[in-house]
Amino acid sequence: MATDMVVPIFRGEGRISYERRPRPTVDASDDVVVQVEACGICGTDLNILSVPPAHKATPGIIIGHEGVGIVAEVGSGVSGLQPGDRVVIANRLTCGRCAYCRRGLDNQCTDYQTIGTTLDGAFAPYLRAPARALWKIAPSVPRDDAALFEPLACAVGSVKRVPFQVGDNVAIIGAGPMGMLFALLYRALGAGAVFLVDIAPYRLDFALAMGMEAALDAARVDVPAEVKRLTGLGADIVVDAVGNQVGQAVKLARRGGQVILFGLRPHDNPPVNQYTITRYDLTVHGTFVGLHPFAQTIQLLESGRVRPSVLVTHRLPLADLERGVELMRSQQAMKVLIDLSL
Ligand SMILES: [Zn+2]
Ligand SMILES: [Zn+2]
Questions:
Q1: What's the 176 CA to ligand 1 centre distance in angstroms?
Q2: Neighbours of 148 (CB within 10 A)
């Protein structure tokens, strides 16, 4: 087996350079080496590679956190995983010791590392990760469904915090991969109508092709009026998958409805009509990456009831990572996977 691999190294300022690196080996007793099968390109990767960056990453590392692969080697202290097992990555390594971890709020850990932003990630033939970052998944789950485990887990974690009733109408602002994962989840949960809102024609067409009840072009239609016309009262649940749409989101909710804030735009400060929230009894949920969503997400993928691979529009070799990033950035792709078998 070759002991070197050629991998894309993040060099800062939106740059990637392909360099030769030694294949990772087991260093610590809880290390696992994974042969990567595929890794999705995430909005976070686009943010890391934009200039100026909209998400931090440590120059010199390999990015990529939406990976699935096969265990190649395990350290002496690893139990529950062995060579040949199929695994997916839960990329945030929380400390387990800070005040938030000790309260069970692991998504608020103040001392975490992340595979693919501060530690080497999965845009590589091999990845080394501590065993606690890896979740075993049945080999029967198609590879491309398993590759979407991490973004799906974020949506699962968000959805599970918000009371939902079968038949609820759901309006989702942002029809990119995250918005579409929310749509697939809510449909699987038994939602009534599911509406997507976006301004990119490619995404609106995609949402309709997936069978969603409506895809509203925010550049052309009065979205609150249209949602009201379609639902009578407004949406029972509104999801902002963009990160700066809270003002619009509260206008789409019916009285007594719920708004889920999921997207992250750290530099935006959108105005919101507080009166609407108070007067119409809206509940606004801030939901960040999900709190312990992983076991349920594995079970969901293993059930086959949600197949996130329907969002995969492109599969590219590792050498084409930058082309994949461009495809997603230009919104001419839904989800792009780096396929390590190509
Ligand atoms: Zn991601
Ligand atoms: Zn912590």
A1: 12
A2: 30
Domain ranges for the chain, please list them.
4-153+291-339, 162-286
Backbone angles phi, psi at 195, to 5 degrees: -115, 140
3-state secondary structure of 314: strand
- CA 68 distance to own-chain centroid: 14
Q: How many CA atoms lie within 13 A of 66 on its CB side?
A: 28
Same fold, 4-153+291-339 and 162-286: no
Class (C level, CATH) for 162-286: alpha beta
> Cα(95) to centroid of ligand 2, in Å?
4
Which residues have a beta carbon within 5 Å of ligand 1, which is an ion? 42, 66, 151
The model scores a pTM over 0.90: yes
Q: pLDDT, tens digit, for every residue of 200-237?
A: 999 999 999 999 999 999 999 999 999 999 999 999 99
Q: Please give the CATH topology (third level) of the domain spanning 4-153+291-339.
A: Quinone Oxidoreductase; Chain A, domain 1 (3.90.180)
Q: Residue 302: what are its φ and ψ, rounded to 5°?
A: -70, -25
